[in-house]
Write a structure and sequence with these properties.
There is one protein chain. A hairpin with a 7-residue loop joins strand 1 and strand 2. This protein is mostly helical. The chain has one domain: MFS general substrate transporter like domains (Growth Hormone, Chain: A). A two-stranded antiparallel ribbon has the order 1-2. It is globular. Helices cover 68% and strands 2% of the residues.
């Protein structure tokens, strides 16, 4: 009997695009990378997080107080935290093009970090000279925020290729804890230093030293960033979402309604939030030490309550956590009307920190979990722009009220009450948010600034949102 002749089966080679993604997956796989190289990268990323966070605590956080110390007025001290943020959000739009031109996420992030550090040079000069034009100060702040926000999409994409999948949840949680300690340490050291400067009559000189230290911390952060590897070069696996499609989604999709609610609340909150510093250092007449205690209390309460809020989201769903947080933040600004007692205000700040922790965690979980992973980088950029526009709109309304009726002693109470009323309207939008449970795990945060009344200004670290969403998982 003759045996059949078996012909070898021809296996077609995968197309180039698929081969590229398979190669990227192998490079990003911890089994294919040197353990020593991975450990060095993770250590450098931790060093970057700590030094960046100390810069946040010492630097931009005290810019409103610096404006007041220069005698530029209460309205300017509020707008310095919002208008430059909007300008920076527009500047960040060049980030995708810059990454493509440089051919590297790392080079772009390092360049932005150095640019951000350089922004403290004119601030030091202004402090030691005792003056700077308002236009120049706002321009410096705009470049600072442009460089800071410009790193976010590229950094989120890059670190997703460095941190092994199985380590992400634990590593980013640990990094976030150290970063939060860095923010608090920087904020505390700067506040105590400024109190000393005010007592000896050298306040502006101390501001100069504080800003110098903040700039040096950002340079150290840039050095840590530069030492990290880049195993996967920029590719085309992150889809750009056009503005028209983004607007269409706002009308018809779940994440769109979440975004409308977020922007409504953000606009209402920013009617009052930028002017808490002016109120505390102005009409309340607080010392820098008491100012630091109040600001630090809200930040600490927010940080301490985040694990509990994560457990609530896991047990009851992010949608229910959002409802609870959305109701809790409504009266916060109005609480400042009822008493000027320092101990009463500490209690208000504790409640504010917990309430904002619930609201922001649920918002990030719902908003970012409803979108594909390959679109998150693009949508984060658009989110930054929309969020900054809402921030600027609310602050301009509060500033207009303060400017027009500033001669009345209760004008601050008016903007605090108006902010609370605006948040009530946000609840009407919240009722249209889908009932889905949402993503039920913890998400790590990156603190960009400490804010009175809200604890801090944060952004999510997108690779911490869960391994099941990672684009490299589908490479094969």
């Amino acid at each position: 009997m003759r045996l059949p002749v078996l012909k070898p089966k021809t296996i077609a080679a995968p197309p180039p695009a698929q081969r590229l993604r398979l190669w990227q997956a192998r490079v990003a796989d911890p089994a294919e990378r040197s353990n020593d190289r991975t450990r060095r990268d993770l250590a450098a990323m931790l060093g970057d997080g700590i030094s960046f966070s100390v810069m946040v605590g010492m630097g931009e956080t005290y810019l409103p107080a610096f404006v007041l110390a220069l005698g530029m007025g209460q309205v300017a001290s509020g707008l310095i935290t919002t208008i430059p943020l909007l300008a920076g959000a527009f500047l960040q739009l060049v980030s995708p093009l810059a990454v493509r031109r440089l051919g590297s996420h790392r080079r772009w992030v390092v360049a932005c970090a150095i640019c951000q550090a350089a922004c403290f040079i004119p601030l030091c000069a202004a402090a030691w000279m005792g003056s700077i034009s308002m236009g120049a100060l706002f321009a410096v702040a705009a470049v600072y925020w442009g460089a800071g926000l410009g790193t976010s999409p590229a950094w989120n994409t890059w670190v997703g290729t460095i941190v092994p999948m199985k380590l992400r949840a634990r590593y980013f949680a640990r990094r976030t804890r150290f970063s939060q300690l860095g923010v608090f340490a920087g904020f505390l050291v700067a506040g105590v230093s400024l109190q000393y400067g005010a007592r000896v009559g050298r306040l502006l000189d101390v501001f100069g030293v504080v800003f110098l230290m903040a700039g040096l911390c950002r340079l150290i952060s840039a050095a840590f960033i530069s030492s990290q590897s880049e195993p996967v070069p920029p590719g085309d696996d992150h889809r750009h979402v056009p503005l028209g499609e983004f607007i269409w989604r706002v009308h018809v999709s779940g994440e769109g309604r979440v975004l409308v609610y977020l922007l409504t609340v953000q606009t209402a909150a920013q009617i009052a939030s930028p002017y808490f510093t002016a109120y505390m250092l102005g009409p309340l007449g607080l010392s820098y030490v008491k100012y630091v205690i109040l600001m630090g209390t809200a930040f600490a309460a927010k940080v301490a309550s985040l694990p509990a809020m994560g457990a609530v989201a896991h047990r009851w769903g992010a949608r229910r956590l959002l409802a609870w947080g959305g109701v809790a933040i409504v009266p916060l600004s109005s609480f400042w009307i009822f008493s000027e007692s320092f101990y009463y205000l500490i209690g208000v700040q504790i409640v504010a920190g917990v309430a904002w922790a619930a609201y922001e965690l649920a918002m990030f979980l719902l908003f970012f979990d409803t979108m594909p992973a390959e679109e998150r980088t693009s949508l984060l950029t658009t989110f930054n722009l929309a969020h900054s526009a809402a921030t600027a709109a609310g602050s301009l309304l509060g500033g207009a009220i303060l400017l027009h009726w500033g001669k009345y002693s209760n004008v601050f109470f008016a903007i605090f009450a108006l902010s609370a009323i605006g948040r009530v309207f946000g609840l009407l939008v919240l009722s249209r948010v889908p009932k889905s449970a949402g993503f039920g795990e913890a998400v790590s945060m990156r603190t960009l600034a400490v804010r009175a009344g809200a604890g801090s200004l944060d952004q999510p670290i997108l690779p911490s949102l869960g391994a099941e969403h990672d684009p490299l998982d589908s490479a094969d």
